[in-house]
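Many introductory courses stop at the sequence. We go one step further.
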Amino acid sequence: MVTVRAYAGSRAEEEPRAVVVGGEEVPVEAIDWRAVEERGGERRRVFVVRLAGRRVRLAHIESSSLWEIERVLPGAGIDESGRT
């Protein structure tokens, strides 16, 4: 599990804004993709975000209000044009 600072709009924990890594807060640079998934009867809000130039898949488990980093995606480097 990981600590995520999120914007709480009309839905709690609506959108990740920063991830705390090793005690340091790393801002979310962009949200590239988002979805709601059901796994084993558990609802998750999933986001692919950019953190420090890397693409990371985050999941918010709604039943427990916990966040996890599911994976760091390959091809994570971003060049100056914003392309991966």
